[in-house]
Design brief:
With 218 residues, the chain is of the alpha+beta class. It has three domains: 56 residues; 37 residues; 78 residues, Roll (SH3 type barrels), CATH 2.30.30. The protein is built from seven helices and five strands, in the order H-H-H-H-H-H-E-E-E-E-E-H. Strands 4-3-2-1-5 form a five-stranded antiparallel β-sheet, with no helix packed on it.
Amino acid sequence: MARRGVRKQDHERLDDLNINRVVKLLEQNKPITKKAACETLNINYSTSRLAKIIQEYKDKIEYAEKRRKYNKGRAFSDLETQDIVISYLSGESVSNIADRMFRSSHIIKKHINDMDLPIRSKTTDYTNPEMMPDEMVSEEFDLNEYVWSAKYNCVASVIDGVWDIRKQINIYKIYIFGKFMQFGYQPAYELGKLDILKQFKIRDDEFQTATQDFNLRI
């Protein structure tokens, strides 16, 4: 991750985890040498650059702690809620969302559950999809409606629908976003409503960035 004033080279190990490790090694009772610290970070030996990297890391940690304290117990704003919904449905991990919003993963998960968003499994299991909240269940969906595909574990768009006389259920042709970007067919009970999206004024390019080609039409 790039830092203010620090131009990272590809070979340098300036990720937060490694910098934190170096800080602890330098601050222990028997600290490592600054040369060893530079070697651990895989940077050229420079005490001034080492000091700058460490200081910017500490400044970032201090800023994050202040923001987390400020956000603790505060309700989510409409923009924060919109960000969570779009990011979560687009596949971003809860931990990444929490870090970016300076909130705990527990609070983000609770907010997701309170909004009755689908449970996103860690791996797509086509033969055993996750259960959806009752609020998302429906027997009918509209053309061009954006829905949750339980089998594919991502957002999809309804292209067409037919009534299966033998199974006595609606079967929908869908276009699946995320990593799939393909057409598929699913019965109504494997699709879920995403009515919460209607609460937000979402630009097309917001979902395009998140899901590569997601032109939202609500």
